[in-house]
Each structure stands twice: as C-alpha cells, then as structure tokens.
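Hi W.,

Here's what went into the run:
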Amino acid sequence: MSNEKINQLAITATKIRKHALDAVYHAASGHPGGSLSIADILSVLYFDVMNVDANNPHDENRDRFVLSKGHCSPGLYGALAEKGYFPKEDVKNFRKIDSYLQGHPDMKGVPGVDMSTGSLGQGISAANGMALTAKLYEKDFRVYAVLGDGELQEGQVWEAAMFAAHYKLDNLIAFVDFNGLQIDGDIAKVMSPLPIDEKFKAFGWNVIVIDGHNYQQIMDAIASAKETKGKPSLIMAKTVKGKGVSFMENEAGWHGSAPNKEQYEQAISELDALLSKLEVE
Amino acid sequence: MADKIATREAYGMALAEFGDKYDIVVLDADLSKSTKTETYKKKFPNKFINMGIAEGNMMSTAAGIATCGKVVFASSFAMFAAGRAFEQIRNSIGYPGLNVKIGATHAGLSVGEDGASHQCIEDISIMRTIPGMVVISPADAVETRCAVEAAIKHKGPVYLRLGRLSVPVLYDAATYQFELGKGIQISDGTDATIIANGLMVHEAVAAKQLLDKEGISVRVIDIHTIKPIDKDIIIKAAKETGAIVTAEEHNVIGGLGSAVAEVLVENCPVPMKRVGVEDKFGKSGKPEALLREYGLTAENIAGKVKEIIKMK
Ligand SMILES: Cc1ncc(C[n+]2csc(CCOP(=O)(O)OP(=O)(O)O)c2C)c(N)n1
Ligand SMILES: [Mg+2]
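Here's what came out:
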C-alpha cells in the first residue's frame, strides 16, 4: 500500500478528529474520548473500504455502517461531513435545538446514518438484521459496526454475537474499540469483559487483533475479514481513548465532557500541527 | 360461525396467507408453536428466522431488517415482547419509526395456567406511550386477519395484541371492514355505551343481551385500535348515550379505559366506569375461571352499566 494513500487517510482522520472536537466544544456537551479513538477506523472505512455514495445515501446496495457505541456521534458526524453527506459547518450546530445533528445518531434526520443508536447493545443487533437481509435477498453489500469495549458488558451484545455466528453472517465486520476505558474507568476494574478475543472466538467468530491507529493494519484486517467465509469477523482494535489530543489520551474523564475554550484551542493547535506535517509529506 | 378460534391462530394463518401477497420476514423467539408463526414458517421457511430466546436482540434485529426496506413481524408472548424488550422497541423501532410489526400473543389473564409471570396486563399501556406506535387488539379471527393486513400496509411500527384462548367468531368475513384507527359500532342503544376490545368485546355483546332483558338499551363499540384511538366514535357515543363503560383484559391503569377517559375528559365529560383487571397480578387457573374471578364478565359489565346510568 502506498505511503501516499496512508498519508491521505491520516489527513482525513485528523480532520475527523477536528470536526469531533468542534462539535463537542460548540455544543459544550458530547463524547470526545471515544470519538477520537475511532477516527482512524472511520477514515479507513469511509475513505477506503465502504461502497457508499454521499449523493445517494439510500442506495439499497450500499454498504452499511452502524455505530453501536452511538455516543461517539461526533466522530461519525465528522466522517460523514468529510465524505460530503452534509455541510462541514453544520457540525458546529451539533446538539443544538435547531440542528438535525442529534446528540446520538438519528437515521431519520442525519444523511448517511444507517441506524439510530445511543442505547448501548442494540446497534450490533440491528447490524445483524441488515447482514441477514443481504443474505436472505442475495445482495452483496456488507455491514460494518463499531462496538465499545465497555458496551460488551451489555448482555444483548452476546445474544447478537450468538446470532451472527449461527446465521453465518460473513458479510458482517464488527470492530471493538478496545480503548480500555468506560465512564467509571478501567473496563477491567468496572466489570471485566476480558478476554474479548477469546470470547468472540468461543462464540464462533473470526477474530483479528490489531492496533486501531495503524492504517495498514486496519486495511489488512478488513481485507482478511472479507476473505473469511461462513463466520462473522470481529476486529479487536487496540486504541487510545482521546487519541491525538495529548491531554485527553487515556483519561476516562474525557469520555463525556467538553473542553473549555483554552483546552479546545490547545487541542485544535495540536491537530493542526499534525495536519501541516502530514500535508507536507 | 359456531367454531371458536384464538386470535393467535388467526394471526399465524394470516401471516401465511399474506406471505403470498406481500414480502414479509417473520421472526420468533423459540415460541413459534405457541405464537402460531409456525404456520408461516411451514410455508415460507426461508423467510422465517428463529432468534432463540433473546427478545431484546429480536427487536433490534427486526429493526435492522426493516432499515433495508422490508416489512418484519417479530413475535413472542406479550410479556416478553412489550415487557422484556420495551426499550429495544422504543429505541430501535419506535424512535426511527421502522416498519416492524410486533405480534404479541398470550396477552392478558386468559393465558390461564401459566400464571402471573406470563399474563401481561400492562402491554397496551406501555406500547401506546411510545410516540408513533400503533396499537391494535382484535376481538376475533376475522378482525385479526384484517388487522394483520392493515399492519402490513401501514408504514411504521405496529403492536398487535393477540390472545391464547379460543374465542367465538363474531364477524362475518364476507362483510367485515377494518379501518385502522376506526372503531366499530356493533349494535346501537340509547342509555349507555360499552366500549371494549379483544376478548372483552364478546362479553360486551353478552352484557347487552343481559341488559336488554331488563329494558336497558346499550350501544356496543369494538375499539380494535387503541392508538390512534377513534375519538369521533367515542365523543358521539358520549353525546348520544351520556354514559360509558369500558371493558378490557388489561390493567384498568393505562389501557383502553384510560385511552377512552382521555378522550372524554378533553372533549365531552360524561360518567364513565372501567371494567378490567383492578391493578392486581393474575394467577394460575382455567382462563374462564380467571376471567370470572377478576370480574372480566358480561355480568360485571352489565352491573357497571346499571351503576353508571344512575350517575347520568
Ligand atoms: C444501555 C445504555 N446504558 C448506559 C448508557 C450510558 N453510557 C454512555 S457511554 C457509556 C460507556 C461506554 O463505554 P465504552 O463502550 O467503552 O465506550 P467508549 O470507551 O468507546 O466511549 C455508558 C455507560 C448508554 N448509552 N446505553
Ligand atoms: Mg471504551
């Protein structure tokens, strides 16, 4: 894979991170930590992998994306804005009374959102429903989903895990954003879902473990998941919550709080510095 | 006409019948023999999905299928559909307004021997409070068949409340007309109106016969759609007969009686009484014995009518 392509994915991911921060800062509310940790995955999915067209968001043959950890809407909206589903400036109206950019993904109001989510544990089931429909009606679209690692504590995730393997949904590729944190801190201390990879294997999934900030690894994992027949794939992506903003990294406190003006400016300047470095390369 | 048939039975047959005419996917959670979706499964094995015992997952999965433009039926007992999976129905189906039809059987006390854990008397209340959810409780097999087709044609979520117990066929299939959100006046009267749904429509009809003998003339209305409720037929009955008794196989809190009361207080307050389960859990027993013990009978309805006429 060319360095140029990877560089471009990094640029897009950085822009997604900036949108996410813009959204949360202007709303003075929202979830930056988990949005920053999935920006690289979103960049690869929307700009390298998924067969989607911002001008035709309801195409019945398009690939689907379900953000099962719906609170990370700032990240998703950032990717959708970059992709051209809606104007980038609108991101600044996130969570405002007159905006269509609802606090959690809303498929009725936000172009490009394939499933309304926000209540943890439900999105992965909906993704199964989409993948199953593709099988029943012999369509060749794929379904991508992103789960939180804390979200795995919801029993419904495991009902869904059983279902996807039982119905051999090899057109489903789910990521676990393994950032190690949830609201109350370390996932292993709150209620350990570990070992995540072994659990999914035991449920009959093809499991791939990667660094969720390494573009090459994300692309390779998806390619190998696509090759896997007869089972769904789980890409366990080790990530850093708050990735890309020094003072947010690995801090549970940035799960669901907005930066003040000074913090926001600091965060943007860090990302801008990275952007100019990438754009020179 | 004399044959009795449960609305769940009619539901399964209707799914199998309409599977030819419409593209529907049916999900069930290890209860297809009881919910009767098995009838559909036998005819359309490829469009029937067994979810295992996982009702919450079933509702969200149904939602995902519906996002792909399909009409989906998801079935379980009312207790586990409306009860266990309430939040999945609310957030995965209701909020995005998806085309999922919840076929909830074994509603009410007439479940019988299984007892309180399986006798859902809260479902109408919790389902009708979800914005945009249509709630239907048919009285017999003919009405059920039409309700299933209406649910398929309606774009958006529908909760269909069905029973386990065999009930008489009240309507003539050749002439019966179902319109979503429109009540049916079964017979006219002048002294009071009985508004019922589900199997209590049969008791309402029987109550009218009892009252006729005493020279009391009542109108009987079957409100199969609790939401959206037919305000016109209720207001008209209030104006013309001046007193209302509701009858339902549900807690008196939050169900048909509450829905009718809401219309009356805002539009045309008249004396009203509710027949239903008096805020108690059910218990094991033969369905008929339970209905008797909990006052879900023609006699109790007739008694309430006599009380209410005095309040006019
Ligand atoms: C059913 C449900 N329960 C609780 C919440 C509140 N909540 C929002 S985010 C969150 C923690 C999620 O942690 P994780 O899945 O690890 O997300 P990430 O670290 O990626 O942000 C909780 C408990 C919710 N949205 N849904
Ligand atoms: Mg986490």
